[in-house]
Specification:
It is a single chain. It is built from eleven helices and five strands. The protein is of the alpha/beta class and about 210 residues long. It is about 50% helix and about 10% strand. Strand 2, helix 7 and strand 3 form a beta-alpha-beta unit. A five-stranded parallel beta sheet has the order 3-2-1-4-5, sandwiched between helices.
């Protein structure tokens, strides 16, 4: 008689990206444009042009100096400190929808982790934030000098999380990161909001 295949066990660890997943970016560029007193489109271009190096470990002074130079501004101490404070505070503050999702998962005793392209200052702020206490592991690109979608960071994440690829359910907003995570063997999904994430978690047997 043909044997019935064993059911696939549910993922043991749910991993979230930070920016545009747990924390949407709406409002950040407007706030930073106010710090620099420049139009929002100019701020947006300068902010993102240099962000990849910052996420890999470039210190805040170097990053914000490059942003100021692009904007034609002098990189004064007060300006750099204000921009860094706004940036770190914004990205490390959870909106209510994410807070409720994390609380529900914590009550269900789901093992949680973060994998995010993020600089050291933000990584420190997230680790210090009360909302991150239910997370078993927090891994940031600046910690390891590798960033999504590089396969290096997914391999490093499995080491840090103590997981095999098939044990991970992952949410990220970027298609290239989702594809890279899938190629690594993670069950990866593009983020479409907390309600959709809950449906996926239920389909995968993580939530009842």
């Amino acid at each position: 008689m043909p044997t019935t295949p064993e059911p696939t066990p549910p993922p043991s660890t749910v991993v979230f990206d930070l920016g545009e997943v747990l924390v949407p970016s709406a409002g950040l560029e407007r706030r930073l444009a106010g710090v620099f007193a420049v139009p929002e489109p100019a701020l947006r271009e300068a902010y993102w042009r240099h962000r990849a190096r910052h996420d890999l470990g470039d210190p805040p002074d170097r990053y914000w100096t490059a942003v100021c130079t692009d904007l034609g501004l002098a990189p004064g101490r007060a300006r750099i400190d204000a921009a860094e404070r706004v940036d770190v505070t914004f990205w490390s503050t959870l909106p209510p929808s994410s807070s409720m999702l994390i609380a529900d998962l914590a009550r269900a005793r789901v093992r949680l982790a973060v994998l995010s392209n993020a600089p050291r200052g933000l990584a420190s702020a997230v680790r210090a934030a009360a909302w991150s206490s239910p997370f078993d592991r927090l891994l940031f690109s600046a910690d390891v000098g590798a960033a999504k979608p590089s396969q290096d960071i997914f391999r490093r994440a499995d080491v840090e999380f103590g997981t095999a690829p098939e044990q991970v359910l992952f949410f990220d907003d970027r298609v290239d990161n989702v594809r890279a995570a899938s190629a690594h063997g993670w069950d990866a999904h593009r983020w479409e909001g907390a309600a959709r994430a809950v449906r996926v978690l239920r389909e995968r047997g993580v939530l009842g």
